[in-house]
Amino acid sequence: MYELNAGFDVWSMLRNLNDFFDDLIKPVAQKHGLTVMQLRLLCAVKNLENATVGSVAENAGIAAANASAMCKKLSELGYLLRRKNETDDRVVCLELTNNGDMAASEADEKINETYQNRELQSFWKKLSEEMSANISKHAAKKAKKPARKVLR
User: Where on the phi/psi map is residue 102: left (φ > 0), alpha (ψ -120 to 50), or beta?
Assistant: First the structure.
């Protein structure tokens, strides 16, 4: 009988999922002359409301400085428009160009084609809800912890 090793199994599953999605959209990225991470950033811009460099970085799980450099490159390649926020110069707002929208839409279509199976959709929805609940519990516990004392 299989015995669950939650930590190892979850990390392994996440790595495998990441690799699976990267392999799934890699042909789309190559078609547009992009890296997989660049395409993932375009997809984040497409799917986030009022996308900024910071929100895209958080969504992609990368440092804001790396996301900023990638967004600058995507802008130079004609896939993305960058502009300063009108009320806060530190915030860079992002918008897809027609080419960026086309690439992100193709990646989204590829992923959606793969997940048309209702059982699989139900599984992912349940897993997502369960993970979100656990993440929220963890964040709430973390917020209740007292601040560390700094020793001098």
Answer: alpha
Which segments of the chain have a pLDDT < 70? 1-7, 142, 145-152
The reported pLDDT for the residue numbered 151 is: 52
Tell me which residue range forms the domain holding 110.
13-133
Question: Cα separation of 130 and 124, whole Å?
Answer: 10
> Is residue 147, in this structure, part of any structural domain at all?
no
In a domain, 92, yes or no: yes
| Helix or strand (DSSP H, E) at 149 | none
Could you tell me the CATH number of the domain that includes residue 27? 1.10.10.10
Those residues with Cβ within 8 angstroms of residue 128's Cβ, 6 or more apart along the chain or in another chain: none
Q: Are 45 and 80 in contact (CB under 8 A)?
A: yes
pTM to 2 decimals?
Answer: 0.74
Residue 142 falls inside a structural domain: no
The per-residue pLDDT for range 49-59, each reduced to its tens digit, is 999 999 999 98
CB neighbour class for 103 (10 Å; exposed up to 12, middle 13-18, buried from 19) = buried
- Can you say whether residue 83 is alpha, beta or left, with left for phi > 0 and alpha for psi between -120 and 50 degrees? beta
For residue 141, is it within any domain?
Answer: no
Number of domain units in the chain: 1
